[in-house]
Write the structure tokens for this entry.
Amino acid sequence: MKTKIRVVLADDHPVVRDGLAAMINQQADMEVVAEAGDGEAAITLYEQHRPDVMVLDLRMPKRDGVAVVQRVLEVNPKACILIMTTYDGDEDIFQCLSQGAKGYLLKDAPRQEILSAIRAVSEDRPYTSSTVAAKALQRMAKPSLTQRELDVLQLVAQGRSNKDIARRLSITEGTAKTHVKAILTKLDAISRTEAVAVAHRRGLIHL
Amino acid sequence: MKTKIRVVLADDHPVVRDGLAAMINQQADMEVVAEAGDGEAAITLYEQHRPDVMVLDLRMPKRDGVAVVQRVLEVNPKACILIMTTYDGDEDIFQCLSQGAKGYLLKDAPRQEILSAIRAVSEDRPYTSSTVAAKALQRMAKPSLTQRELDVLQLVAQGRSNKDIARRLSITEGTAKTHVKAILTKLDAISRTEAVAVAHRRGLIHL
DNA sequence: CTCGGCGTCCCCCGGAAGGTAGAGGCCGGG
DNA sequence: CCCGGCCTCTACCTTCCGGGGGACGCCGAG
């Protein structure tokens, strides 16, 4: 038999780590070599162990998944990273995937899917669950917000007025309104409140 | 040795169920007798197995935690239910606790806390993690929304205009505005968008 | 270089939102 | 029984939001 697939886990919930570890160690062809509870530990442990696969939660303390992917791929561009998160429709997913994460899974995936995703990624084959693939296509069609618009959107989501947003971003109220208008158009929303709802659904913002 | 504490798990993530099951079955004094992936199964399995403790996720398909708590306590008012969820600041928690759930935990709790919570609940002692207890006290001080206001809030959160809200609830626009005003006052928000942000933070609404 | 996207700024205007100040009906608890 | 909370409705007024334009400098891709 070949050597086992060495896996590092990163998730802030001990319960989830235990679950994955139990699931993985039960398999003959893979084993967990380390577990991290936050983003920084994840990076450290990756460098220490150089595992074949890293299973990564998107939402973590200290550094989120996106930052970890970025950093790890800087160190080792061939790293095989499997993203695992609770939410679909999350913009962060696409950031991770376009940055080079090899796979993406939802936490509510059945055991079998999780395991085959790990195997796929370990062989450098990309794995993306079909629901996510579908979302990706939808997303392509839709206009994306600029960085500045995301800044504004963030403040809009906090309930700030245009005037308030302008003050915080050191621009005029007129400019703030221009950005808000652009956001409304791109998100196909009638009011700022609806824009927030849509943006949240798409994972453009995290409340 | 006494008979083991018999536990039923209910969570929609296979990974989490595995993690809890592994953690629990490793203990000498407890065992998992059944696992449910949604609310309906949870109810069925409870009635079938009559476990000493039921560990319940708040967010589940088909029936959410609140409904399950209600139903199970109807059948057996002495049922020991431990709520376990990802989010704090969630209004549902208080509904569950006031309906008779015996304990509440966050999913990011360490192993030891989870296990001792199960033991406490199995002996009919209430268990509430300190962070939640603190929130409960804060909540007491704050004004609560009426049912009608929650209805309106739900629509506000979807980005509906006052006129739209009025139409959907079969009331006049003026009345809708009255409700929105009350919401703004109670949530201490300046604009409807801020109200949505606050309400979401407090778990009054789920987007 | 030229074109397009981005960020910044400006105008006008109608309509929606939010603040103020009431008032009547209905129901449950003291 | 009467008080208080809730839901409903009303009118007036100010401010803000959102739709429609147009304009400028900057920068990077073609």
In short: Chain B has a mean pLDDT of 91. The longest strand of chain B covers residues 30-36. Chain B has two domains: 5-139, 147-201. DSSP finds ten helices and six strands in chain B.
